[in-house]
Automatic annotation (TrEMBL):
Protein name in the entry: Transport permease protein
InterPro entries to which the protein is assigned, alphabetical: ABC2_TM, ABC2_TM_bact-type, Nod_factor_ABC_transporter
Membrane-spanning intervals of the chain: 37-54, 60-84, 91-111, 148-168
Keywords on record: Cell membrane, Membrane, Transmembrane, Transmembrane helix, Transport
Membrane topology: Multi-pass membrane protein
């Protein structure tokens, strides 16, 4: 993007679109490099956390599957939003951040909700990410057969199903 150009400056989005790589520029070795980077990050995080008491469990792998499924649903919803507001790119970020940050806060991921007011705990109970976070905590502790894991599995299936349904419908409507 040229110097002095940003998302809110007229004409800059056109320049960015022209400079963006296209599907035919995609190379399989890029995927491999990205996967290696993710695996490297996981190994690094586990390596750093282990001396502080983290014990990897086989159940942790189920946790990664849940996160991946939830991510697919959330990604599909994000894609549908991007297609819906493609003519107003800044609106995408406004809407996405308006929903994602409160979802993270209400999930108990960043701050514990044990001593939160009752109205905040009610909102948290309506948040599917809360169930995924609780499931991840149990799975990374090696506990598989808990209610939290079942709740996380249900939340993941619901978000993935709804996200894919909305995403596929939006893609079909725009093509």
């Amino acid at each position: 993007m040229p110097q002095g150009c940003h998302a809110f400056r007229p004409g800059c989005d056109r320049i960015a679109d022209e400079a963006a790589p296209h599907d035919h520029d995609h190379r399989p070795d890029q995927d491999l490099r990205q996967r290696r980077a993710v695996v490297g990050q996981v190994v690094l995080i586990v390596g750093v956390a282990t001396p502080f008491g983290f014990e990897p469990h086989v159940a942790s792998l189920l946790g990664l599957v849940l996160v991946a499924g939830f991510g697919v649903g959330l990604g599909a919803l994000s894609y549908a939003l991007a297609l819906a507001v493609r003519d107003q790119q800044e609106l995408f970020w406004v809407v996405q951040q308006t929903f994602l940050f409160p979802l993270m806060l209400l999930s108990g991921m960043l701050l514990p909700l044990d001593d939160a007011p009752s109205w905040l705990r009610v909102l948290s109970a309506a948040n599917p990410l809360t169930y995924l976070v609780d499931a991840e905590r149990d799975l990374f502790a090696g506990q598989v057969g808990t209610g939290a894991v079942a709740g996380g599995l249900v939340a993941t299936v619901v978000v993935a199903t709804v996200g894919l349904a909305v995403g596929v419908r939006r893609i079909r409507a725009t093509t």
